[in-house]
Design a protein that fits this description.
mainly beta; 2 helices; 13 strands; 14% helix
Length: 219
């Protein structure tokens, strides 16, 4: 698993079933974890059907922390939210990254208070999966740590838009690479037109990303 690779992310429930999966691009790796990128139009699959990312996201998966974190950005590069999933540490299996979601999420949007989400889902999971009192306490401790992380997180800045590959055209028996904007009858379109870098890569702020349930309202 190296920078630039396309990998698969699998999010599991506590019974081992996969409730969400998607492809992501590796931005960086280290002994501590993996950072991936997703962009608008990337497809998320699941038993209830699929949906597409609406926003760009930079996702941080740690091998030893009880959560993962997503920076979610508007198309113009502004931070939408930081979203922290309370979850098992991620584990890499070849070109697949896997974690188990424990329902609770910590969310913060610019100018808003920190929020803990999906308490009802957590209560249901405690019954459905038999979470012990000790395990429930460990999840609460992870929430406390995630609140501190969210409160002092420094965002990295919106991911760069995908580079358009030039097309190969043939002229008088020879081929050459022609930029897309030189092709006749083509205009620059698509979800990344006019995208800019984040307002301030060093801005100290935090917020939510993807929900623990299969819905597409946050990304």
């Amino acid at each position: 698993m190296r920078s630039g690779d396309t990998i698969i992310i699998r999010a599991l429930k506590s019974d081992g079933s996969c409730y969400r999966h998607w492809r992501a691009t590796v931005e960086s790796t280290s002994g501590e974890g993996v950072v991936t990128i997703n962009r608008p139009g990337d497809v998320v699959g699941g038993p209830a059907g699929g949906w597409e990312f609406k926003h760009s996201a930079r996702n941080f998966y740690w091998f030893s922390k009880p959560y993962n974190l997503s920076e979610v950005y508007h198309p113009d590069g502004r931070l939408k939210q930081i979203y922290i999933h309370i979850a098992s540490p991620a584990r890499a299996c070849g070109q697949t990254l896997i974690y188990t979601d424990y329902e609770l999420d910590v969310v913060k949007r610019p100018g808003q208070e920190l929020l803990v989400r999906d308490e009802d889902e957590f209560a249901h999971a405690c019954q459905a999966y038999g979470y012990t009192p000790e395990f429930q306490c460990s999840c609460r401790e992870a929430v406390s740590e995630a609140l501190q992380v969210a409160d002092c997180w420094r965002v990295t800045g919106a991911p760069r838009a995908r580079r358009r590959r030039p097309r190969r055209v043939r002229s008088r028996g020879s081929a050459r690479i022609v930029p897309r904007d030189e092709l006749p009858g083509r205009e620059e379109t698509g979800p990344y037109r006019g995208a800019s870098a984040a307002d301030s890569a060093g801005t100290r702020t935090v917020t939510p990303a993807m929900d623990s349930s299969t819905r597409n309202t946050d990304v």
